[in-house]
Write a structure and sequence with these properties.
The protein is an all-alpha fold. The chain is 47% helix and 0% strand. The protein is built from 5 helices and no strands.
Length: 158
């Protein structure tokens, strides 16, 4: 692409997208490396930009792959577009305006950082969406630990 005269910003953009879409949380550092390479390529320009871009391309290509985060956001957006998802739970509604107490906004909300372990099992989706799970971590790369942690938190809070 470089030899063919492609714009380095286009190349960098594709590498960043690949890091997020194809590598995802299997290796979260791939996005950091790709973004750093994109910034470096803009900063130094050609011909040196080929070096950080090559580093990012080889990192992303060699990293474990998971599209679980990509699938999760697409599923959530598809639900929003295709169905009545219901109302935001009262405890998650904005309380920063006069009259919000009248509507019981914020009642019952538990701030996770006020709880040991910083995790609270509380309703975050509307009633109509109860039981919906969008992010399904894989058994690949760093997602193994994400999956284990999430399962542990849910079990502990039952």
């Amino acid at each position: 692409m470089i030899a063919g005269g492609e714009d380095i910003n286009f190349i960098a953009r594709r590498v960043v997208i690949c890091a997020a879409e194809d590598v995802g949380n299997a290796d979260p550092m791939a996005l950091v490396v790709a973004n750093a390479a994109a910034q470096a390529a803009q900063f130094v320009g050609l011909p040196e930009a080929r070096i950080p871009l090559a580093q990012a391309v080889t990192y992303v290509a060699s990293a474990p792959k998971s599209n679980a985060a990509y699938l999760a956001i697409d599923a959530a957006l598809a639900d929003i577009e295709s169905k009545d998802c219901g109302e935001v739970p009262l405890h998650l509604r904005d309380t920063h305006y006069k009259g919000s107490k009248f509507f019981h906004n914020g009642e019952g909300y538990i701030y996770p950082h006020d709880v040991e372990g910083h995790f609270v099992k509380q309703q975050y989706l509307p009633d109509k969406m109860t039981g919906t799970q969008y992010y399904r971590p894989t058994d690949i790369g760093a997602e193994v630990k994400f999956k284990e942690r999430l399962l542990s938190l849910w079990k502990r809070s039952d």
